[in-house]
Amino acid sequence: MTQTAPCHILSAGFSVHRKPFHMSGGDSVQYYLLRLQTEGRSRTMVDGVLTTVESGDLMLFAPSDPYYLSIDKESYPVGKPRIESGDYHIFCGGPWIEEWWTRKQRPLVLHMPLSDYFLGLFRQIVLEQRRLSNPSPEISACYLQILCLEIDRLMSEQPAVSPKGYLAYRMKQYVEEHAAYPFRLEDVAGHVDISVSRAVHLFKEAFGTTIVKYVNDVRLDMARERITFSPMPLEHVSETCGFANYTYFHRLFRGRFGMSPKQYRAYSRQTEMTSLP
């Protein structure tokens, strides 16, 4: 690692715990630590209170912060009480990290959406750290900077909502991340461990629309983009945007945009041609 690097990674990895694990409250971290709970639960101390860390919770520790971590048997909605915990962890440092850390007040634990993109940044950093040939610390440092900036962006985008509103927000993210694939209302509700009827109510209360309508709106926006910018056959557009059949897609598309998918493709191409110099 060169001395001019803005940040560096000391270690990064993914851990799965199926047995009890404890870090003493007297221990402290020597570097900055980013720990993302990806599955199961653990516990840490927040302002002297033992606090449950759920899937999606990001723990942030600065050098010399007391580090308490406990993983024990927990009760879950399905099955008997068990030990289950998985996490990504990154120990890092450097002047860029120090400057990033001081830009704003950072809570010890904050909740992050477990999107494929966000998880992918952690995965990529871990993969880069595991390279045995042609290692490039500069690439790892760039990924780390992107991850930190993404954390700030997600923090700014998350509204200050009630616990009920936050469940609705998580369901909305689930819909947006899985819109291209078939799923059921049960899948959306199961994502936040509530019943379908409660999920439907909370979503409508928070966003003023139904889950089904929002799913279709997201899929139609995806379809409109692919119809405009790709040569993909219209039936394939329908399928890759999560619609079960073309007839249903055709009816929804016409209702939303006032013309059929075929007419919209012709219209968008004509508009593009007339706008050329």
Give your account of this protein's structure.
- The chain is globular and about 65 Å long.
- It is built from ten helices and nine strands.
- α2 (116-130) runs antiparallel to α3, α4 crosses α6 (196-207) and α5 (185-191) packs across α6.
- A five-stranded antiparallel β-sheet has the order 1-8-3-6-9.
- The model has no long low-confidence stretch (mean pLDDT 86).
- With 277 residues, it is an alpha+beta fold.
- Residues 169-267 form the HTH araC/xylS-type domain.
- Keywords: DNA-binding, Transcription, Transcription regulation.
- This is AraC family transcriptional regulator.
- It holds the Pfam family HTH_18.
Please describe the biggest sheet, giving its number of strands, its sense, and whether it closes into a barrel: 5 strands, antiparallel
Derived from helix and strand composition plus strand pairing, the structural class reads alpha+beta
In N-to-C order, the SSE pattern is EEEEEEEEHEHHHHHHHHH
Oligomerization: single chain
Number of helices: 10
Name the helicity range: 40-55%
User: Roughly how many Å is the radius of gyration?
Assistant: 23 Å
Q: Could you tell me the number of beta strands? A: 9
- Sheet with most strands: strand arrangement: 1-8-3-6-9
What characteristic shape results from the CA principal axes?
Answer: globular
Unreliable spans: none
Keywords: DNA-binding, Transcription, Transcription regulation
Protein name: AraC family transcriptional regulator
